[in-house]
Amino acid sequence: MTTIPPRVHHPDESMEFFTDEGCAILETWNRPEDEAVSIARARVPARQTTRLHRLHGIEERYLIVSGCGQVEVGGHVPTLVQSGDLVYIPAGCTQRITSLGEEDLVFFAICTPRFVPEAYEDVEEPR
């Protein structure tokens, strides 16, 4: 295990990018030297839904920061979420989230171990 020295990291807002999944991502913390965790700020535009997907070998937690939405996890009943709510998503579980209302839904996606693109699988039927 690599030891990471103490630090304060300031994400560069200009590095936010829009994904094929349907949300904007700012990688707040995702480093090869810290395999244990990654943290990304996700932003789903108002009245949009991300694509149904799953992460292989990675547990994920959504910590809702602002806006309101509806999350679908593993075939369970869609559930309303708002600021302060936390959604736990086991590895391999299908998931998607919808931004309800007039403002973007913003949340932190906390992945353990850290997110790697190879773990992502889009499982939604083509539109």
Automatic annotation (TrEMBL):
Cupin type-2 domain ranges (all copies): 43-110
**Keywords, alphabetical:** Isomerase
The family database entries (SUPFAM superfamilies) matched by this protein are listed as: RmlC-like cupins
Q: Which domain of life is it from?
A: Bacteria
Gene3D superfamilies reported for this sequence: Jelly Rolls
InterPro entries, per the entry? Cupin_2, PKS_Associated_Protein, RmlC-like_jellyroll, RmlC_Cupin_sf
Identify a single GO molecular function assigned to this protein: isomerase activity
Keyword Manganese (UniProt): no
Q: What is this protein called?
A: Mannose-6-phosphate isomerase
- This protein's species is Thioflavicoccus mobilis 8321
